[in-house]
Amino acid sequence: MKSIYFILLNLFISQCILSSQVQTFDFFYFVQQWQPALCDKKAACCYPTTGKPALDFGIHGLWPVNNNHTFPSFCNENSPFDENQILDLMSDMQKDWPTLACPKNNGKKFWAHEWNKHGTCSLSMLDMHSYFQVTLALKEKVNLLQVLKNAGIRPDGRSYGMKAIKEAIKNGIGHDVVIECSNDVFGNNQLFQVYICVDKTGSDLIECPMILKRKCDENIVFGDFGSDTEGSSISL
Ligand SMILES: *[C@@H]1O[C@H](CO)[C@@H](O)[C@H](O)[C@H]1NC(C)=O
């Protein structure tokens, strides 16, 4: 009899330890980056070894957020990135989640970073395979480039009003988004990242619970890849 209590007690204690290790969070930011903007900053870009990415937004990541606007990070060292768990997703990852970091590589370093820093903080909702799968599904669901094109906003290197860009996206996806800008090599403010709020399951778009402050000018450039932008900004 005593040993049963002992086992139950141990079970209770280990459950407490386990649950205290699982990070909670309130919603996600689904962050996409405009690929050419990565090649048009002071830092150089390198096309992935798997090929030049399409002229499109690429996934940056799916980031768990708390309602008090803190971002939990690196939550579980015991669950490191393991490509063997997502082999079936590899070709979609290469297409929709490319890396433009130098030196040129196949993207696994980027995905491992996103998993280790952000993904491990949403283990209470999504295991590794689900985390990458729902993120790819969000990219399919939200075609930002098409939504912008529908409003006559094209990546032609011209300037567009921030108001028009935000309105076009709101009309297309039904929710306000946060836009982040960067400066191109000429010092022009340009479209860089778009943050979309997503519920904890990673499947439904929601209104953002709070305003994330990111700075952009009133008019911003929507750029194309240059004729040969890869690595070119090193010399500028
Ligand atoms: C924010 O919320 C999280 C989760 O509830 C909590 O762990 C953290 O301590 C809070 N941080 C601040 C600065 O309030």
From TrEMBL:
Leader sequence range is 1-19
* Active site positions, chain numbering: 60, 114, 118
Iron-sulfur: is it a keyword of this entry? no
Output the InterPro entries linked to this UniProt entry: Ribonuclease_T2_eukaryotic (IPR033697), RNase_T2-like (IPR001568), RNase_T2-like_sf (IPR036430), RNase_T2_His_AS_1 (IPR018188), RNase_T2_His_AS_2 (IPR033130)
Whether Iron counts among this entry's keywords is no
List the Pfam families hit by this protein, alphabetically. Answer: Ribonuclease_T2
Q: Which PROSITE patterns match?
A: RNASE_T2_1, RNASE_T2_2
Which domain of life, per UniProt?
Answer: Eukaryota
Q: What Gene Ontology molecular-function terms does this entry list?
A: hydrolase activity; ribonuclease T2 activity; RNA binding
- Pull one GO CC term from this UniProt entry: extracellular region
- One GO-annotated biological process of the protein: RNA catabolic process
Q: Which UniProt keywords apply?
A: Disulfide bond, Endonuclease, Hydrolase, Lyase, Nuclease, Signal
Protein family per UniProt: Belongs to the RNase T2 family.
Q: What is this protein called?
A: Uncharacterized protein
> Which organism encodes this protein?
Solanum pinnatisectum (tansyleaf nightshade)
- List the top taxonomic levels of the source: Eukaryota, Viridiplantae, Streptophyta, Embryophyta, Tracheophyta
